Amino acid sequence: MKACHPDLSGDDPETTNFCMFINEVYAVLSDPVQRMVYDEIHGYALTAVNPFLDGSSPKDHAFVDEFSCIGCKNCANVASDVFAIEEDFGRARVYSQCGNPELVQQAIDTCPVDCIHWTSAAQLSLLEDEMRRVERVNVAFMLSGMGSASMDVFRMASTRWEKRQAKVLEQTKLRRVKQKGSDKSEPYWSNLWGKPRDYQNSEEEVKERARRAAAAARRWREYSRRGVDKPPTFKLPETISNNED
Protein backbone atom coordinates (compact mmCIF):
# COMPACT_ATOMS: atom_id res chain seq x y z
CA MET A 1 0.00 0.00 0.00
CA LYS A 2 2.85 2.40 0.76
CA ALA A 3 4.14 2.02 -2.80
CA CYS A 4 0.69 3.02 -4.09
CA HIS A 5 0.72 6.35 -2.28
CA PRO A 6 0.60 9.28 -4.75
CA ASP A 7 3.71 10.81 -3.16
CA LEU A 8 5.70 7.68 -4.11
CA SER A 9 3.95 6.59 -7.29
CA GLY A 10 4.21 9.98 -8.97
CA ASP A 11 0.45 10.24 -9.45
CA ASP A 12 0.46 7.32 -11.87
CA PRO A 13 -3.24 6.75 -12.74
CA GLU A 14 -2.94 2.96 -12.76
CA THR A 15 -1.26 2.87 -9.35
CA THR A 16 -3.75 5.33 -7.91
CA ASN A 17 -6.67 3.25 -9.17
CA PHE A 18 -5.15 0.15 -7.61
CA CYS A 19 -4.75 1.96 -4.29
CA MET A 20 -8.40 3.03 -4.43
CA PHE A 21 -9.40 -0.56 -5.17
CA ILE A 22 -7.45 -1.87 -2.16
CA ASN A 23 -9.19 0.69 0.04
CA GLU A 24 -12.53 -0.44 -1.36
CA VAL A 25 -11.74 -4.09 -0.64
CA TYR A 26 -10.68 -3.20 2.90
CA ALA A 27 -13.92 -1.30 3.43
CA VAL A 28 -15.94 -4.29 2.24
CA LEU A 29 -14.10 -6.92 4.28
CA SER A 30 -14.03 -4.75 7.40
CA ASP A 31 -17.83 -4.54 7.24
CA PRO A 32 -19.00 -7.51 9.37
CA VAL A 33 -22.15 -8.02 7.33
CA GLN A 34 -20.42 -7.83 3.95
CA ARG A 35 -17.70 -10.14 5.26
CA MET A 36 -20.37 -12.67 6.24
CA VAL A 37 -21.74 -12.50 2.71
CA TYR A 38 -18.26 -13.05 1.28
CA ASP A 39 -17.61 -16.01 3.60
CA GLU A 40 -20.89 -17.66 2.65
CA ILE A 41 -20.38 -17.16 -1.08
CA HIS A 42 -16.87 -18.62 -0.97
CA GLY A 43 -17.63 -21.52 1.38
CA TYR A 44 -15.97 -20.23 4.54
CA ALA A 45 -19.18 -20.31 6.61
CA LEU A 46 -20.92 -23.38 7.99
CA THR A 47 -24.30 -21.97 6.99
CA ALA A 48 -23.21 -21.66 3.36
CA VAL A 49 -24.78 -23.41 0.38
CA ASN A 50 -22.82 -24.11 -2.77
CA PRO A 51 -23.99 -21.38 -5.20
CA PHE A 52 -23.83 -23.86 -8.07
CA LEU A 53 -26.39 -26.05 -6.29
CA ASP A 54 -28.60 -23.17 -5.15
CA GLY A 55 -31.47 -22.60 -7.55
CA SER A 56 -33.10 -19.85 -5.50
CA SER A 57 -30.79 -17.01 -6.56
CA PRO A 58 -31.66 -15.14 -9.77
CA LYS A 59 -29.27 -15.65 -12.67
CA ASP A 60 -28.92 -12.09 -13.88
CA HIS A 61 -25.14 -11.79 -14.36
CA ALA A 62 -23.43 -12.65 -17.65
CA PHE A 63 -20.23 -14.69 -17.81
CA VAL A 64 -18.04 -15.71 -20.76
CA ASP A 65 -16.34 -19.09 -20.52
CA GLU A 66 -12.92 -18.28 -21.95
CA PHE A 67 -12.09 -21.95 -22.40
CA SER A 68 -14.81 -22.14 -25.06
CA CYS A 69 -14.68 -18.64 -26.58
CA ILE A 70 -13.20 -18.53 -30.09
CA GLY A 71 -13.03 -14.74 -30.36
CA CYS A 72 -15.64 -14.40 -33.09
CA LYS A 73 -16.67 -10.92 -31.80
CA ASN A 74 -20.36 -11.68 -32.25
CA CYS A 75 -21.29 -10.78 -28.67
CA ALA A 76 -19.29 -7.53 -28.78
CA ASN A 77 -21.16 -6.54 -31.93
CA VAL A 78 -24.57 -7.43 -30.50
CA ALA A 79 -24.13 -5.93 -27.01
CA SER A 80 -21.11 -3.64 -27.09
CA ASP A 81 -22.02 -2.04 -23.75
CA VAL A 82 -21.55 -5.42 -22.02
CA PHE A 83 -18.98 -7.40 -24.03
CA ALA A 84 -15.58 -6.48 -25.42
CA ILE A 85 -12.71 -8.37 -27.01
CA GLU A 86 -9.41 -8.46 -25.14
CA GLU A 87 -6.57 -7.10 -27.25
CA ASP A 88 -3.91 -9.39 -25.80
CA PHE A 89 -5.84 -12.65 -25.84
CA GLY A 90 -8.49 -12.16 -28.51
CA ARG A 91 -11.41 -13.44 -26.47
CA ALA A 92 -14.62 -11.91 -25.22
CA ARG A 93 -15.06 -10.64 -21.67
CA VAL A 94 -17.96 -9.12 -19.78
CA TYR A 95 -16.93 -5.61 -18.77
CA SER A 96 -20.29 -4.37 -17.49
CA GLN A 97 -23.39 -5.98 -16.02
CA CYS A 98 -25.51 -2.89 -16.68
CA GLY A 99 -26.39 -3.52 -20.31
CA ASN A 100 -29.67 -4.40 -21.99
CA PRO A 101 -30.66 -7.94 -20.87
CA GLU A 102 -32.44 -8.54 -24.17
CA LEU A 103 -29.27 -7.83 -26.13
CA VAL A 104 -27.27 -10.05 -23.77
CA GLN A 105 -29.77 -12.84 -24.36
CA GLN A 106 -29.48 -12.26 -28.11
CA ALA A 107 -25.70 -12.60 -27.82
CA ILE A 108 -26.16 -15.83 -25.87
CA ASP A 109 -28.59 -17.23 -28.43
CA THR A 110 -26.34 -16.39 -31.39
CA CYS A 111 -23.01 -17.44 -29.86
CA PRO A 112 -21.65 -20.18 -32.18
CA VAL A 113 -19.96 -22.09 -29.34
CA ASP A 114 -22.40 -21.43 -26.46
CA CYS A 115 -19.72 -19.87 -24.27
CA ILE A 116 -21.90 -17.16 -22.67
CA HIS A 117 -23.94 -18.01 -19.59
CA TRP A 118 -26.36 -16.37 -17.18
CA THR A 119 -25.12 -16.84 -13.61
CA SER A 120 -26.07 -15.63 -10.17
CA ALA A 121 -23.93 -12.96 -8.52
CA ALA A 122 -22.52 -15.55 -6.12
CA GLN A 123 -21.64 -17.93 -8.95
CA LEU A 124 -19.97 -15.10 -10.87
CA SER A 125 -17.85 -14.21 -7.85
CA LEU A 126 -16.56 -17.80 -7.68
CA LEU A 127 -16.04 -18.03 -11.44
CA GLU A 128 -14.04 -14.80 -11.56
CA ASP A 129 -11.93 -16.00 -8.64
CA GLU A 130 -11.28 -19.29 -10.43
CA MET A 131 -10.33 -17.64 -13.72
CA ARG A 132 -7.90 -15.42 -11.82
CA ARG A 133 -5.85 -18.52 -11.03
CA VAL A 134 -5.65 -19.87 -14.57
CA GLU A 135 -2.87 -19.15 -17.04
CA ARG A 136 -3.89 -16.99 -20.00
CA VAL A 137 -3.19 -17.91 -23.60
CA ASN A 138 -4.09 -16.25 -26.87
CA VAL A 139 -7.18 -17.65 -28.58
CA ALA A 140 -5.04 -18.81 -31.52
CA PHE A 141 -2.95 -21.00 -29.21
CA MET A 142 -6.08 -22.21 -27.45
CA LEU A 143 -7.64 -23.31 -30.74
CA SER A 144 -4.45 -25.18 -31.57
CA GLY A 145 -5.07 -27.40 -28.56
CA MET A 146 -3.76 -25.50 -25.56
CA GLY A 147 -6.24 -26.56 -22.90
CA SER A 148 -9.48 -25.63 -24.61
CA ALA A 149 -11.51 -28.82 -24.55
CA SER A 150 -11.03 -30.41 -21.15
CA MET A 151 -11.40 -27.36 -18.91
CA ASP A 152 -14.71 -26.83 -17.12
CA VAL A 153 -14.47 -23.63 -15.08
CA PHE A 154 -17.90 -24.25 -13.51
CA ARG A 155 -16.81 -27.64 -12.21
CA MET A 156 -13.46 -26.23 -11.09
CA ALA A 157 -15.10 -23.40 -9.14
CA SER A 158 -17.68 -25.71 -7.56
CA THR A 159 -15.01 -28.23 -6.56
CA ARG A 160 -12.89 -25.51 -4.95
CA TRP A 161 -15.94 -24.36 -2.98
CA GLU A 162 -16.63 -27.92 -1.77
CA LYS A 163 -13.02 -28.32 -0.64
CA ARG A 164 -13.17 -25.07 1.32
CA GLN A 165 -16.42 -26.10 2.96
CA ALA A 166 -15.06 -29.55 3.87
CA LYS A 167 -12.01 -27.94 5.46
CA VAL A 168 -14.15 -25.51 7.46
CA LEU A 169 -16.37 -28.35 8.66
CA GLU A 170 -13.39 -30.45 9.70
CA GLN A 171 -11.82 -27.54 11.58
CA THR A 172 -15.11 -26.86 13.34
CA LYS A 173 -15.46 -30.48 14.39
CA LEU A 174 -11.95 -30.43 15.83
CA ARG A 175 -12.70 -27.27 17.79
CA ARG A 176 -15.91 -28.75 19.15
CA VAL A 177 -14.11 -31.92 20.19
CA LYS A 178 -11.58 -29.83 22.12
CA GLN A 179 -14.41 -27.91 23.78
CA LYS A 180 -16.37 -31.03 24.70
CA GLY A 181 -17.04 -31.13 28.40
CA SER A 182 -15.71 -27.62 28.99
CA ASP A 183 -18.97 -25.80 28.22
CA LYS A 184 -21.95 -27.09 30.18
CA SER A 185 -24.30 -24.34 29.06
CA GLU A 186 -25.25 -25.91 25.73
CA PRO A 187 -25.35 -29.34 24.09
CA TYR A 188 -22.21 -30.55 22.35
CA TRP A 189 -23.41 -30.17 18.74
CA SER A 190 -25.95 -27.38 19.28
CA ASN A 191 -23.93 -24.63 17.63
CA LEU A 192 -22.00 -26.65 15.06
CA TRP A 193 -23.72 -25.09 12.08
CA GLY A 194 -23.31 -21.51 13.23
CA LYS A 195 -25.85 -18.82 13.91
CA PRO A 196 -28.80 -18.10 11.62
CA ARG A 197 -28.18 -15.60 8.85
CA ASP A 198 -30.04 -12.76 10.55
CA TYR A 199 -28.18 -10.14 8.52
CA GLN A 200 -30.46 -10.69 5.52
CA ASN A 201 -32.77 -7.77 6.19
CA SER A 202 -34.31 -7.73 2.72
CA GLU A 203 -34.05 -9.56 -0.57
CA GLU A 204 -32.79 -6.44 -2.32
CA GLU A 205 -30.04 -5.94 0.27
CA VAL A 206 -28.89 -9.53 -0.15
CA LYS A 207 -28.76 -9.11 -3.94
CA GLU A 208 -26.84 -5.85 -3.65
CA ARG A 209 -24.22 -7.33 -1.32
CA ALA A 210 -23.78 -10.34 -3.61
CA ARG A 211 -23.45 -7.99 -6.58
CA ARG A 212 -20.73 -6.02 -4.79
CA ALA A 213 -18.84 -9.23 -4.05
CA ALA A 214 -19.02 -10.27 -7.72
CA ALA A 215 -17.86 -6.84 -8.91
CA ALA A 216 -14.92 -6.91 -6.51
CA ALA A 217 -13.93 -10.39 -7.73
CA ARG A 218 -13.97 -9.20 -11.35
CA ARG A 219 -11.81 -6.17 -10.58
CA TRP A 220 -9.32 -8.23 -8.58
CA ARG A 221 -9.12 -10.65 -11.48
CA GLU A 222 -8.15 -7.78 -13.76
CA TYR A 223 -5.34 -6.67 -11.45
CA SER A 224 -4.17 -10.25 -11.00
CA ARG A 225 -3.96 -10.71 -14.75
CA ARG A 226 -1.59 -7.74 -14.93
CA GLY A 227 0.79 -9.39 -12.49
CA VAL A 228 -0.18 -7.22 -9.53
CA ASP A 229 -1.24 -10.22 -7.46
CA LYS A 230 0.89 -13.30 -8.23
CA PRO A 231 1.54 -15.76 -11.08
CA PRO A 232 -1.30 -18.14 -12.00
CA THR A 233 -1.47 -21.27 -9.87
CA PHE A 234 -3.04 -23.40 -12.60
CA LYS A 235 -1.01 -24.01 -15.74
CA LEU A 236 -2.74 -25.02 -18.95
CA PRO A 237 -1.46 -28.08 -20.83
CA GLU A 238 1.26 -27.55 -23.37
CA THR A 239 0.21 -26.90 -26.95
CA ILE A 240 -0.59 -30.13 -28.73
CA SER A 241 1.71 -30.60 -31.69
CA ASN A 242 0.31 -31.86 -34.96
CA ASN A 243 3.71 -33.20 -35.97
CA GLU A 244 4.61 -36.70 -34.90
CA ASP A 245 8.20 -37.47 -33.99
TrEMBL record:
TM stretches of this protein: none
Keyword Iron-sulfur set for record: yes
Domain 4Fe-4S ferredoxin-type: 60-88
Top-rank taxon, per record: Eukaryota
InterPro entries for this protein: 3Fe4S_ferredoxin, 4Fe4S_Fe-S-bd, DnaJ_domain, J_dom_sf
Record's keyword annotation contains Metal-binding: yes
Gene Ontology MF annotations: electron transfer activity; iron ion binding; iron-sulfur cluster binding
One protein family per Pfam: Fer4_13
Region (Disordered): 223-245
Protein keywords: Iron, Iron-sulfur, Metal-binding
Stated name of the protein: 4Fe-4S ferredoxin-type domain-containing protein
Species of origin: Carpinus fangiana
